[in-house]
Amino acid sequence: MEKHILITVGRQFGSGGKPxxxxxxxxxxIPIYDKELITEAARQSGYSxxxxxxxxxxxxxxxxxxxxxxxxxxxNMIGDAELFRIQSETIRSIAxxxxxxxxxxxxxxxxxxxxxxxxxxxANMESRIKFVCERDGVTPDEAVxxxxxxxxDRARYYDFFTQKHWGxxxxxxxxxxxxxxxxxxxxxxxxxxxxxxxLI
Length: 200
What we know:
By secondary structure, this protein is an alpha/beta fold. The protein has a single domain, classed as 3-Layer(aba) Sandwich (Rossmann fold). The chain has helices at residues 17-28, 36-45, 49-55, 64-68, 80-97, 107-110, 125-136, 140-162, 178-196; strands at 6-11, 32-33, 62-63, 77-78, 100-103, 117-122, 174-177.
């Protein structure tokens, strides 16, 4: 019987956590879900995909009317808790069907009773700035501002819904500085560790 592998990847912004997840996906031959979760959550809930994109890993609320377009200005709102519930149900539904890698979105907490391998990827600030500059075409100063804001957003989102603290080593099975090993070897180390734990 094929092993049911679940891996969650938390990451500092600009640390290269998504590329590490992609490497894990290729090496293990299992699907990875990042932005794909937004599309699936929108499909299952019937809400606008644009709404999920704007709300991604941020704690806030939006007027639905503004996102469905047209001149419908009803005051129906979808709150943070409802958004988190919809996305969590999507993550669990995917995880129940087979092996998968989930990037961010408090997936370690969402799958806490399903025995996932919980990984957190960090990187040196110099490496993160370079990564963001090259990917987004911004200056180093702009990159620092983006990194600070996105990390704050992720921390607020994670801390609020999990009652834990984002990025704290004790929340995860393994924390790795990608700057030290690079993407490929970081993925290899995660796989080796997962096999030692019997989770891969």
